[in-house]
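Chain A, query sequence.
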Amino acid sequence: MKFIIVFVALFALALASNPQDAETLRYESNVEPERYEYAVETSDGKTAQEEGHLEDQGTEDEAIVVKGSYSYVGDDGQTYSVNYVADKNGFQPQGAHLPVA
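Chain A, predicted structure.
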């Protein structure tokens, strides 16, 4: 499950850019049985980092809790950043450019 989350996040980052235009400047990853973390930075200004851990292991409430962030340079030249948490309450993004309920 953890591998899938990391793979999907990295796949989304790869799709967002043309691989001929950007190079990976930094890639760090650590995947363990009950936790993981990764960080990626590309030459076109994109960054992503995430960490997750297994909570309530062995119970009916067992779930992966994820915290992370990503940023990118928009077409307008502005850098957009999003911090997020994903847990039993769902995906909760925060960013200066995102509407607040």
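The chain is about 15% helix and 50% strand. The mean pLDDT is 86.
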